[in-house]
Amino acid sequence: MESKQTITLKTFDNKLFEIEEAVAMEMITVKSFFDEFADNSSSSSKATIIPLPCYSYKLAD
């Protein structure tokens, strides 16, 4: 069974949650973050916490 890549997102109320990378890349905020800041060398997306300043945990849940 293949392990899926996940990305950690952080809401403005400081809640962390993980979602599949493929799903996260459907979000404009996440895709823009990676387009602008992602280091394609040795860092993994799991080690990156992406801030979502316009989303609360209740909205994301």
Key descriptive features of the protein:
SKP1/BTB/POZ_sf; Skp1_comp_POZ; single chain; 61 residues
Task: Describe what this molecule looks like in 3D.
With 61 residues, the chain is of the alpha+beta class. It has one domain (1-52). It has three helices and three strands, in the order E-E-H-H-E-H. The protein has helices at 21-24, 28-37, 57-60, and strands spanning 6-11, 16-20, 49-52. It has a three-stranded mixed beta sheet. A hairpin with a 4-residue loop joins strand 1 and strand 2. It starts with 5 loop residues before the first strand and ends with a helix.
Give the number of domains.
Answer: 1
Order of helices and strands: EEHHEH
What sort of overall outline do the alpha carbons produce when their principal axes are compared? globular
Low-confidence stretches: none
The overall average pLDDT, rounded, is 77
Strand content: 15-25%
The largest pleated sheet is described as: 3 strands, mixed
* Rounded Rg: 12 Å
Distance between the termini: 27 Å
| Number of helical stretches of at least 4 residues | 3
In helices, the fraction of residues equals: 25-40%
Secondary-structure-derived class: alpha+beta
Organism: Jatropha curcas
Pfam family, one: Skp1_POZ
Domain SKP1 component POZ: 6-42
Protein name: SKP1 component POZ domain-containing protein
Topology diagram in text:
Layout: E1 6-11, E2 16-20, H1 21-24, H2 28-37, E3 49-52, H3 57-60
Quick rundown:
The chain contains three helices and three strands, in the order ββααβα. It has helices at residues 21-24, 28-37, 57-60, and strands at 6-11, 16-20, 49-52.
